[in-house]
Amino acid sequence: MDLLRSGTRFIPKTLNDDGDNAVTYLPAADTTELEKQRGYKPLYVGLGLVGLAAVLTLTTGLLVWHFHLRREEMILKKMYFGSMSITNQRFIDSYNNPNSQEFQQLGVQVYLFTAHQCCLPSLSVAVCLSASKTYTYHIGKLPTGTIESPGFPNSPYPSDTYIQWRLHAERGHRVQLMFDYFDLEDDCQKDFIRVYDSLVPLEQQVMTEKCGYYKRNEPLSVVSSGNVMLLTLVTNKEKNYPGFRATYSQVPLQSQDCGGKLTGLKGTFTSPNFPSHYPPQTTCVWDIEPVKSNNKCPKDHVEVNNEKICGYKPYITVVTVRDNRTTVTFKSDMSYVDTGFTADFEAFVPTNPCPGKFACANNLCINNPLTCDGWDDCGDNSDERNCKCGSDQIQCRNGLCKSKFWLCDKVNDCGDNTDEGNCGSCQSGDFSCRNGGCISENLKCDGRPDCPDGSDESKCSRSVVMQCSEYTYQCKNNQCISKLNPECDEDVDCEDGSDEADCQCGKRPYRHSRIVGGQDSSEGEWPWQVSLHVQGSHVCGASIISDRWLVTAAHCVQDNVEVKYSQPQQWEAYLGLLVQSQSNKWTVKKNLKQIIQHPGYNKDSYDNDIALMELDSPVELSQNIWPVCLPSATHDFPPGKSVWITGWGDTMELGFAASILQKAEVRIINSTVCETLMEGQTTPNMMCAGVLEGGVDACQGDSGGPLSFIETSGNVFLAGVVSWGDGCARRNKPGVYTRVTKYRDWIKRSTGV
Ligand SMILES: *[C@@H]1O[C@H](CO)[C@@H](O)[C@H](O)[C@H]1NC(C)=O
Ligand SMILES: *[C@@H]1O[C@H](CO)[C@@H](O)[C@H](O)[C@H]1NC(C)=O
Ligand SMILES: [Ca+2]
Ligand SMILES: [Ca+2]
Ligand SMILES: [Ca+2]
């Protein structure tokens, strides 16, 4: 009976040897319909299938085979489930217990899942589900309850597990499940949960599948369409994460959960439960009345004006209705739900749609100064057409104007490459050496340096040892290698392996699945960010580079008439902080032992704007307190690439103070171009970065705070220190940052780090 123990491989094809294609899907019984029509609950029974083929002959009614196949790579990992509904029986609670007298009287012989009966063959090796378990909860008796993954919160969930939790609400209610902690392996091929709108894992009724990490300010919540829900947890052999904790409850099923009549000239409406997941099988109709289909979106969608909208839209979507009323319909089908939408509506006078503002071609109204500024604010570029370009703009051949920041940064901003022509690059077929000059493309990566600086060998899979220069990386054994940025790129390039030593820096414990609209950071997202306080208030930012040392800006520690900022006893450093004035168990407050301002700091030109701070005692590193990587002196941060600025707002100047740590994505500006734009106020010790397309201008960087560059390996490097240009990310003004690579040797000499 116990296949695994007997050493036999689990063969899921007991019934039919044709394998995958032979699995038949019969339509699932619609549980809600049965309930509504007959007042009966259909009886669903999970059948453990392994070695139990005989059960099949006993069933009456509808039999549904569920074939749980996780995409191609996972063909070896399958689970089979059967379910059966007996439609002529009224459901009573004792049917949940197959040993009850009532159940036995049904005359159906059923095997429920028990440990070791369901196995997952993985990578051709049979793996038994060591803890396959089913829990059942009836919500009516206890209004809410908690579900946790095994071991939570004290230990990670177990390997090779399949667990299911069945939730029954009372009739006339929905089941609501809210995860307040969720941290699973990032790869949904490996560990995942699924939530079903049914009591058995029917593919057609999956509401959602989740893995990875959800931060606390983005809770995960799902609602069923009827009064049942199933949660399953599947884990594989490796990498066990903390798991999850969820609260279940029931919510009354209302006939009118959403939709309705909207009047007035302005308003907002959202999908049900927004920003949580909307329930499956939902239809909402809004009649908008001051003012009014194709097959583009066959599944869940919003329909307005016969136009269906679905999918993820990072930017605003505008629908214009040329009528004095409209209807908006939201529909979700049986499976896979998401967080839905929020929408604003506004009535307009057709003859003057945007009084006092600019009317985009899509009828969005934007403030006049946003036209012809080089940024697409309408979403259809109509605010950037027919413009006369300003002196700080590039006149693109296609008629657009773009900010001059974006000249010669290898990103085609005009769309027709106007901004990337005349950048002194070589003819096609030639390779441009980093320090100028052109060589034939064939000489690239041939193992011999042909450019004077060897840069033709700098972006190759193999690194060559060559003469040291400002374009090579120096290994600990003093050999210099040709590869560009070989540090912590997960390939050993130095003979002594020193390029891959000490690569724990710049790792973020939490994985950040998708960058959501807002600019608030989440806990542990920037664990090197420090808040420096003087006299109880936040004054500057800093970055953690070791358990003892911080990097900040020299101008932060410059004395003025009122405060001796250069004195360590003036300062308090808050590490692991997310919200100002809200310390938590991860937050550590430290005093300083010493401050080392760069001896070459020039308070007029802001040249060498960098300083070091030593903590009075080493800080214990944690998931929220972690050092950033220091780039080697020859590390290249090329123009055109994204970097992140973070901070609570610059309070030294006339900024605002944000309460939650803010982040903003900016783009590195070509330094030759920046020098021109800033009219010679920059030095080679500075680098410039500007707001990205679609970005908002807000003052998000703190003086002294980090400019973080996320390398493809996932390690984050400190590219810069917020210095001047307000430390703000402003559309038409680049931010200027201290170029950290210039100070690598000084930092090493001063701190040993
Ligand atoms: C809306 O327009 C129709 C004609 O298109 C008109 O008959 C109706 O009175 C209008 N309703 C309002 C509220 O203006
Ligand atoms: C920066 O722009 C100049 C022209 O202004 C160009 O020669 C140079 O190659 C650019 N630098 C980079 C790294 O693209
Ligand atoms: Ca614009
Ligand atoms: Ca460009
Ligand atoms: Ca390497």
From TrEMBL:
Sequence ranges assigned to domain Peptidase S1 in this UniProt record: 515-752
SMART domains: CUB (SM00042), LDLa (SM00192), Tryp_SPc (SM00020)
Residues that coordinate or bind Ca(2+) 2: N273
SUPFAM superfamilies listed in its UniProt record: LDL receptor-like module, Spermadhesin, CUB domain, Trypsin-like serine proteases
Active-site residues, as the UniProt record annotates them: H555, D609, S703
InterPro entries per the UniProt record, alphabetical: CUB_dom, LDL_receptor-like_sf, LDLR_class-A_CS, LDrepeatLR_classA_rpt, Pept_S1A_C1r/C1S/mannan-bd, Peptidase_S1_PA, Peptidase_S1_PA_chymotrypsin, Sperma_CUB_dom_sf
GO molecular function, one term: metal ion binding
GO-annotated biological processes: complement activation; endocytosis; proteolysis
Paired cysteines (S-S): C188-C211, C360-C378, C372-C387, C389-C401, C396-C414, C401-C433, C408-C423, C426-C438, C433-C451, C438-C488, C445-C460, C468-C480, C488-C503, C505-C629, C674-C688, C699-C728
Keywords assigned by UniProt, alphabetized: Calcium, Disulfide bond, Endocytosis, Glycoprotein, Hydrolase, Hydroxylation, Membrane, Metal-binding, Protease, Receptor, Repeat, Serine protease, Transmembrane, Transmembrane helix
CUB domain segment(s): 128-251, 258-348
Membership in a protein family: Belongs to the LDLR family.
Annotated PANTHER family: ACROSIN-RELATED, SUPPRESSOR OF TUMORIGENICITY 14 PROTEIN HOMOLOG-RELATED
Name of the featured protein: Suppression of tumorigenicity 14b
Species name: Esox lucius (Northern pike)
